[in-house]
Design goal:
Number of domains: 1
Radius of gyration: 16 Å
CATH topology: Hypothetical upf0131 protein ytfp
Largest sheet: 5 strands, mixed, barrel
Mean pLDDT: 95
CATH class: Alpha Beta
CATH architecture: Roll
Low-confidence stretches: none
Shape: globular
Helix content: 25-40%
CATH superfamily: Gamma-glutamyl cyclotransferase-like
Order of helices and strands: EHEEHEEHEEHH
Distance between the termini: 52 Å
Amino acid sequence: MQDLWVFGYGSLMWRPGFEFEERRPALLRGYHRGFCVFSHVHRGTPERPGLVFGLDAGGSCRGAAFRVAAKRAEGTQRYLREREQVTSVYVETVKAIELVDTKERAEALCFVVDRKHLQYAGALDFERQVELIVGGEGRSGKNPDYLESTVRHLEEAGIADPELSRLWRAVEERLRQPASSR
């Protein structure tokens, strides 16, 4: 077995949960980061879903690539399946990525949203996204914390995402309101 590259675009960027040899800025073409998955486990429940990121078709996505040593590759894949595939909303696939700092290409493990899955939420309007994020809480914590951490880590990595920043400002504003008026 050879070393494994893993592409992170959401919480994997700031909480990978596995050992890796190196972390590099990366670009995945053909997919974009979007709040397109109803979360029934990590950031919500079936009764009160939250929203989490998925890699959805179209555009491109800046994120992080993690190189995992060959001896840890199998265990890392097992861990990621348990973490990412709780409800099988993602399709595990290998895609070509570009390592931004050197322009090298690599093949990386990616989890792409399954648009046919019942938890696919790709067509939600902005206000509905805000509402779901404000009210979402699941096994991994509160949905607003997930959004804030991702926005903060993207900014620290020098990745501009004006729409995501706009969403965070709207969620923050809504959280400042009394609970009865949310």
